[in-house]
Amino acid sequence: MKRLGLLLLPMLAITLMLGGNAFAQNVGDNSVYFVTYFSNANTSGAPDGTLRIINDGDQATTDSEGVENGPLAADIYVFDDSQEMISCCFCYVSADGLLSESVNKQLTSNTFTGRGELTRGVIKVISAAWVGDPVTSPEPTTGLRGWMTHIQATANIPEKGPWFVTEDALADSNLGATELANLGYLCSYGYTIGSGYGRCPCTSEDFDF
Description:
Number of domains: 1
Structural class: alpha+beta
CATH architecture: Sandwich
CATH class: Mainly Beta
CATH topology: Hypothetical Protein Tm1070, Chain: A
Radius of gyration: 21 Å
Number of strands: 9
Distance between the termini: 52 Å
């Protein structure tokens, strides 16, 4: 114990000299692209999954009260489990605001393909500037962070319940130029030929699931 105490004293002294910053290195990153999955969606007896996104205020300004302060677009792209984009949308998220999107009622309710109720797939999110049509021509901009609830089955079909609900942060991912262009192009193409299909609705910021 004496030896451990002697080792800790120099460390404490260094920390105090640095103003305590030795233990304050939890600095945010500049991620703009996030991925996750959904499972057991639109399944009888299963609860709904929820995608939640907040604006951390990274783009906040010093504008006076009453002037919109640092809004961002959550560009959301939804795929089925065979790589096909089924819907996309961009949702407004004000600085320090919260966006909540239902998997069943919003993200998979109005698909390009009209395949009916999807049970599993992939969700991709770009943190983008609130300019133009962000989801078809995204301009990646830091500031959004997100979480997803996952619905886990506890048994095999046909009786898959009871159900467990887990939640974790969206995974930070690499956004290459090709992926960025493809996401915008596929969404734009879907909107063009979809005749209103494929555009997922956005929840008001003052509403949560």
